[in-house]
Amino acid sequence: MSDAKADLLGRQARSLLRRATRAALATSMEGAPYASLVLAATGVDAAPLLLLSDLAEHAKNLKRDPRAALLIEGTADLDEPLAGPRVTLIGTARRIEPVAAAPLRMRYLARYPAAALYAGFKDFAFYQLDVVRAHLVEGFGRIDWIAGGIFLCAAAGWTEETAALERVNADPGLTTGLARPFSAAAWQVAGIDPEGVDLRAGSRLERRDFAEKAADLVAAEALIRALAGRA
């Protein structure tokens, strides 16, 4: 596989996950497969992020065996769902300690504000799926395996996302411009990553992709202005 094709496949797989609002989590229950519905978020590098209760069966399963798979699909409203894109991410689910989870917690709650009602409960914890490989299906006969390192997006130096979000959301012209392709609503930017921005209006989530990958948050803010027609 050429580097160009690998980069394209990685970006397509990440795009499915970054656009997802839900996913199917597969864990092992005493040697048998067990699938459950979860809300999906991502780190800036596209590492899958989950918020799970210790009381849930999938969390109990992960405590015994951390191997897991996450299915994300983009087949909504298609007449032929099997002709639509989906990706299965395979790896190990790792519980994240509270201090290390702080930036991931911010990204998760910016995407799902209602989760703030229970995210602080003692029986809830954040998990990251360390992706070993991904199985991308873009439709009939368009199938590829992707290594975990190709799936992830380089995101060194993205430590000031909160400040960048505050700057962008403080400028109504930027948020209005970013949300122009979507119906009128009170949109806010919920996340910034090297490949685009996540927008939220109430429970509705949308995504705008950059024309090119941003090397850092300074470059990302310039690309945000371009997307909003403010370059």
Textual characterization of the structure:
By secondary structure, the protein is α+β, with helices and mostly antiparallel strands. The chain folds into 2 domains: 3-151, Pnp Oxidase, Chain A (Roll), CATH 2.30.110; 161-227, PNP-oxidase-like (Split barrel-like, Alpha-Beta Barrel). Helix content is 32%, strand content 35%. It has helices at 3-19, 57-64, 98-111, 116-119, 148-151, 161-169, 172-178, 217-227; strands at 23-29, 32-38, 41-42, 48-53, 67-73, 86-96, 124-139, 142-147, 188-193, 196-201, 204-209. A hairpin with a 2-residue loop joins strand 7 (124-139) and strand 8. The protein is globular. The termini are far apart. The mean pLDDT is 92.
Could you give me the name of the CATH homologous superfamily of the largest domain?
Electron Transport, Fmn-binding Protein, Chain A
Number of helices: 8
Q: Roughly how many Å apart are the termini? A: 36 Å
SSE series:
HEEEEHEEHHEEHHHEEEH
Provide the β-strand percentage band.
25-35%
Helix/strand-derived class?
Answer: alpha+beta
| Principal-axes shape call | globular
Q: Examine the secondary-structure arrangement and name the CATH architecture of the largest domain.
A: Roll
